[in-house]
Design goal:
The chain is α+β, with helices and mostly antiparallel strands. It has two domains: about 170 residues, no CATH class; about 130 residues, no CATH class. The protein is about 35% helix and about 15% strand. The chain has nine helices and twelve strands. The strands form four sheets. Strands 1-3-5-4 form a four-stranded mixed sheet. A four-stranded mixed sheet has the order 8-7-10-11. Strands 2-6 form a two-stranded antiparallel ribbon. Helix 1 packs across helix 2, helix 1 runs antiparallel to helix 5 and helix 2 packs across helix 4.
Length: about 300
Amino acid sequence: MVKVPVKSQSSNASEESHDVWFNPYRQPRTSGATALVQGVVAEIKTHEKRKRARKARDLETFDAIASALISDIVYFYLSRHPAHVGLTLSRANDVLGGKSRYRPKYYNKTTALVLNFLDHGGFGTQKIGTALDPITKQRTQTVVRPGTKLSVLIEQAKLRLPDFRTDDKAEVIVLKDNRPDSFFDRSERAKSIEYTESAVTRKLRSEVQVINAWLEQADIDFDLGVAQAAGLDPRQIDIRNLKLRRIFTRRRFDSGGRLFGGFWQTLPKQVRMRGLRIEGEGVVSLDYSEMNPRITYGLFK
């Protein structure tokens, strides 16, 4: 294994302290990852000591939640984040008990139960968040980190980031709220909000799904040696992370609309340009000065 200094992919120091949000759609991609996840789930069930077996539907939900949690904790471990960064998620009943297009149906109150099992079994540690403050309207999220027992299993299995994937059911059209402007919320990023399905959103989603399907089959590679030469940890780069999502802002589908999510987007520009390969060839970036004013002038000329 190559030993190089672990550095953040971002040049923005403030971004380095941000915890990573739990991805409930994370799943194993390879047989090795599947074996590890299933093994941990089986051990949880062995020590659960239930008096009665779960109903088929409840068992399916439990397995799905456990698989997603374990997969994302492993992915978090493999991403080599700084020690102070954690994997955050909510244990709040109003969140786990509610429906959202940004979470799978099985993401419910059983999540907190599985987290407790992972904690007690040495597979993960959790710092449970605080309840909603009635004055500030804020609460702290639960922070999860890989446990010693899970870390050993990961190293023994020699897993890598590409051993995991994001389920195709994950929402790719995201609508953001207005940025908070209250005294207490100024530092927060705009939150994702629910929206009503329409012909517009179905069309937008279909377009992104077509792009993602093309990317999945495309011959896209990256020279990890370029990242290492630039002082980055190549283990932090998941070259199979190709799925994009389209994010709209200000509660409107005519605001924003940029694509986010590909592994190349978080890389420094020079590293990205030198390391990317499409069908074995290098890439170039065309950046035209004052292009937007010129396009606007052309439209109204």
